[in-house]
């Protein structure tokens, strides 16, 4: 369907402008739920959210309806803890960890909105906890043998290039700090480099190699 939309726009205008494809069709089979959804989207517009943000909240709202199994507005007033748990399982099976970290807080906000607006009798937002982010990969590093290979490969390189490579490998300086390094930042008497890091603004003292 999206490919057809792209082709039609190119045929009409000769070019294509990248944008979100927002469906304008009714997403809830029950009229009362669709009315509530439109009311919620209007509420988001009053918050001056961008269209892509509203689209994300709309996705979370529709996932909430599907995950809890609620079919109409009257069913919201009978919402139970077990349905919230089913919603969490429903989302966890479909979203990766990073996506859950984005959608879960929105679900929590939706529950608070429904409670404040009187659509649900209990504020279940406290049940929605943002999953902790866990790094699933190790930081890359250069082994001692690889470092030796680098230095051997640069034997014929200019002294300036060698110095920049050594500053990065031995002192761990960021590329921006290496590029901005000045002779005035070198304390020749005490054999040290004194510089203010461009990224953090923190002054560091490093040994002169």
Which descriptors would you attach to this protein?
9 helices, elongated, 209 residues, mainly alpha, three-stranded antiparallel beta sheet, 2 domains
Largest sheet: 3 strands, antiparallel
Order of helices and strands: HHHHHHHHHEEE
* Count of runs of 4 or more consecutive helical residues: 9
Number of strands: 3
| Sheet with most strands: strand arrangement | 1-2-3
Spatial separation of the terminal alpha carbons: 61 Å
Shape summary? elongated
Task: Kindly provide the radius of gyration, computed on alpha-carbon positions and rounded to a whole number of angstroms.
Answer: 28 Å
Mean pLDDT: 85
Q: What structural category characterises the helix and strand content? A: mainly alpha
Contiguous low-pLDDT stretches (5 residues minimum) are none
Helix content: 40-55%
Protein name: Integrase/recombinase y4rA
Organism: gut metagenome
Pfam families: Phage_integrase (PF00589)
GO biological process, one term: DNA recombination
């Amino acid at each position: 369907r999206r490919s057809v939309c792209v082709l039609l726009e190119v045929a009409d205008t000769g070019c294509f402008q990248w944008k979100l494809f927002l469906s304008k069709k009714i997403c809830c089979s029950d009229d009362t739920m669709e009315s509530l959804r439109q009311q919620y989207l209007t509420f988001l517009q009053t918050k001056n959210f961008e269209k892509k943000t509203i689209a994300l909240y709309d996705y979370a709202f529709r996932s909430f309806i599907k995950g809890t199994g609620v079919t109409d507005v009257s069913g919201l007033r009978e919402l139970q803890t077990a349905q919230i748990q089913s919603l969490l399982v429903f989302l966890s099976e479909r979203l990766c960890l990073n996506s859950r970290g984005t959608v879960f807080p929105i679900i929590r906000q939706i529950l608070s909105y429904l409670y404040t607006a009187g659509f649900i009798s209990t504020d279940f937002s406290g049940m929605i906890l943002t999953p902790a982010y866990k790094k699933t990969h190790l930081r890359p590093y250069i082994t001692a043998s690889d470092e030796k290979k680098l230095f051997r490969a640069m034997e014929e390189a200019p002294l300036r290039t060698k110095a920049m490579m050594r500053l990065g490998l031995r002192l761990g300086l960021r590329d921006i700090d290496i590029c901005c390094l000045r002779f005035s930042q070198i304390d020749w008497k005490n054999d040290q480099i004194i510089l203010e890091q461009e990224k953090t603004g923190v002054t560091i003292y490093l040994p002169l190699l």
